[in-house]
Amino acid sequence: MTALDGLRVLDVSEALAGPYCTMFLGDLGADVIKVERVGSGDNSRMWGVRTEQGECGYFLAANRNKRSITLDIRTLRGQDVLRALLETSDVLVCNIPGLDGLRRVGLDPQHVLERFPRLVYCTISGYGHTGPYEGRRSYDLTAQAESGTISLTGDPNGEPVRYPVPLADIVTGLHSVIAILSALLARDKTGRGQLIDSSLLDSQTAWLALTATDYFLMGTPPSRLGNLHPSIVPYQPFCAKDKRIVIAVGTPRHWHDFCRIVGFGPDVRDSPRFMTNEGRIVNRDELIPLIAKILRTRDAECWLSLLQEAQIPCAPINSIPDILSDPHYVARGNIIEVPYHGRELQLLASPLRLVGTPPSYRLPPPLLGEHTDEILASIGLHPTEIASMHKEGIV
Asked: What is the CATH code of the structural domain delimited by 8-207+355-392?
């Protein structure tokens, strides 16, 4: 048994935020039907590095546990099929931008929810469906920039730096999962679904909870600190003799034990300049060079062993191959293999660890339109009608 057995999700989304959301629902057991445009499909099928078989990692990363149907929802006949699929769906996820765009394909939220009152309808867009920016186009990059997130990254004396992973897309997908599951629980109580209005800008800006609160309290915009932490010292990378590590000294006990490990005596450990975290923040420029000089005298493995023994948070700065072969990460089952057209495809597992109803990996990422005929037959279309729709380019 999986957590979402018997739930059907209609996924009319592409790129990353929507597909990432519906993949999580699929991992939890939902039957996810992915609706793609005829001929080319989800735009992410064309993004990124391609394998010899022509597959794009971008698409493969966010589309397992789904069945694919190609459907031209710009046509009246295509919209009839979409409505027939909605008759048996619990959730609709759609990232067609703008209310006008949704209306053109028959997915106006008000009308859809009037016709299907038990439906949980999650729209995902750059700016949401209220406010002056409604309908404006957005990607992860623009959400990172406009949210203020990029203004905090990079060297203090250099340029702002985009996060190299699509944070806005991923967090919007996760926030949408939370909202969908909450709406389904509410439906159990009220009998009615509801609209969820997810946006990249809202979700990305939510990452600034601590920073925004400090600004509300103090009225001072934060400065770019690079790898430093505004509220904890030391909490940053350091160079050991052979490579870089990170160390986080977050409590008075951590500080006391850290001083013992690196050889700081009472003159440093108990100095009013360094004894408290507040003092260490004020006197950061004096303290950090003292720590850095000592840490360069031993290899990273030595320091990490001593710090971990004292239960001080610390870690190596791993490369991607390092973490994907790390014995702890692998032992936790974080890398899965799914059969994929004659070979095994490696993917990252779901991080949702439900012990009683764990995620399952039933279907590999689908080929474009792989399940079209199967899905059309499931809503009662005769093979001759299906053949006619293929001929007309509707599917």
From this structure: 3.40.50.10540
